[in-house]
Amino acid sequence: MALHLSWVFIFGILGNAVSFMVSLAPLPTFYQIYKKKTSEGFQSIPYVVSLFSAMLWIYYALLKKDAMFLITINTFCVFIQAFYIVTYFHYGPKKEKIMTVKLMLLFNVFGFGVIFLSTFFLPNPSVRLLVLGYICMAFALAVFAAPLAIVRKVIKTKSVEFMPFTLSVFLTLGAIMWFFYGLLLKDMNIAVPNILGFIFGILQMILYAIYRNHPKKTVEESDPKLQLSDRSIVIFDVAKLGSNDDNNNGGGIEGNNDALNKV
Question: 165-180 in b/e burial notation, b at 16+ Cβ within 10 A?
């Protein structure tokens, strides 16, 4: 039992460390926004979704009571995603500000509110946790599937300029750590989404190896919006049970949040 708890602790720490670095991946993007004094050309939805994912996993971890490492990483994700959103909102054009407010109301107020009210008052605690776990797992799987857009872009353009190799490596490592964390806790809501995260991470690294020497596209062909949303999937993610995001099931669950961007 002591050995089992030790491994849970080790994978929890490693999962937090990797997801922490993944969550910081969008910082260069926001430094660029700060320098240009405008967020035009980028989208806020990856950060709104990553914030929503972190909120879900914190709620799940509080009900579960034995998943402290989900609380630690997702609490950090709440603060860092809030920082990204505030920065984006400050420098964004009026149209994008309105869109960001709508997204926040849709995901973080209405969406989370509906999930909270529909589960918190269920009389049976085990049923409440089960229902919430399925919701978190479904959302985490959806977040991990998001990199398909960037994978399609890479195959179509034969260019990896929107898919940083280092980010793909960290997303894959995060998925591995959170998978074993969930497995050792015997919590498939944490473990299962990270299987998909691992598969997509390996796929991205294979594509990078195939197309890394291919000539880059011109500036006119580049797509900053796609680049940003790729990183975003952090998150999480299942860190977020996550990514980037974004997992980020705390776990690997938000995503490639700016390439994590990107669970």
Answer: eebbebbbbbbbbbbb
